[in-house]
Predict the 3D structure of the following.
Amino acid sequence: REIALKGMGALAVAIAAAFSALGDGRAIAAACESTARNPGAGGRIQVLMILGLALIETLVLFTFLAAYLGL
C-alpha cells in the first residue's frame, strides 16, 4: 500500500509538472505576442509574465511537497 501511495504521489508531481510546462509555454507565447503588438508595454508585460510564471511554478512545488509528505 505504501508503494502505491508513493506511485500516486509521483504521478501527481508528473501531471502537475506537465501542465505547468504547458502553462509556462502559453504564458511566454502570449507575452511575446503582446510585446510584438505593443513594444512600449514590454517592460510591464515582462514583469507580469514573471509574476505569473512564479505562481504557475508554485503549483508544482506544492504538489511535490504534498507528495513528499504523503498528504
Notes: Residues 25 and 39 are 20 Å apart (CA to CA). The two ends are 14 Å apart (CA to CA). The mean pLDDT is 88.
